[in-house]
Amino acid sequence: MKNYGYIEDGYNRPGYIEGRRNMYDELRFEYRPVLYVDRVKILEKYRDPKQASTAIRTIVQHVIKWDLKKPTRNDEGKITGEEAVELNKDEVWRVHPDLMDAIFMIIVGQIPCDTDPEWTDEEKQQADDDEFEAALSGTDPSFEREKGDSKNSETG
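User: That's the sequence. What structure does it adopt?
Assistant: Structure tokens below.
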């Protein structure tokens, strides 16, 4: 699988975050990358304490689907199962803060996602190649992929 330095309109990427012991389970998701021109604006708001909802709005707008679950409980409060967490601001507010930060930083291209053990060898190699190229050029792995298309942006 080749990753071009151009984000086509409607292009989505797979994302994966390894679980953290005693914090949250692994997460698989599909997202629409934030383009560079929007990233600058989003990160500026993200750093402003008065704009705490920036990460939540960005996640709701750019995550297409995910496998995040929450417990279901009976009348006594005992966990009886689990159900999907919907992608809306009321639900995303309740996501573990460290997990929310990781999702957000992946979407805006500040960090790469973890390598999903379910990816094919070709997908794993492409992720490794992206990280290597980014290290050589002093950028993050998604920077080159963000160039050239403003159709995924809210301003484009």
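The chain is about 35% helix and 15% strand.
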